[in-house]
Amino acid sequence: MSKPLEVLLVEDDEDDVMLTREALKDSKVIVSMAVASDGDEALKRLRREPPFENAILPELILLDLNLPRVSGREVLKVLKGDPVLKKIPVVVLTTSAADADIVKCYDLGANCYITKPVDFEQFQRIIKVIDEFWLTIVKLPTVKT
User: Where would you tag: which of 20, 97, 135, 139 has the fewest CB atoms within 10 A of its CB?
Assistant: First the structure.
């Protein structure tokens, strides 16, 4: 049996967390998904700061932009400025469809930008597409610290 693919979902909306978990249950690969409910928690987890000293680095990050404490834009900036963490692909998954947000995220190094649909079935479809592409087709780097 192969080891699960590690995914970090940075999302403060509990409904979106639940929907993402449900959609990934049918994945063709085994997925282990950790959740950070704000940007500060995400950065602590990725840097393995207390209480996340034993956290496993993810192979993919799903990042919302509109987060409490530290915004998703700031998380992205910090990640892509770090020599180790910058290798982790980041899929921005957010409600914003603003051109300024899209351009800013790509300028900061996002690997992909997806606007979250409000419809449950469309949201599930988007997660399945992310699963199919990022977790099944793409070869993800192994990041070691």
Answer: 139
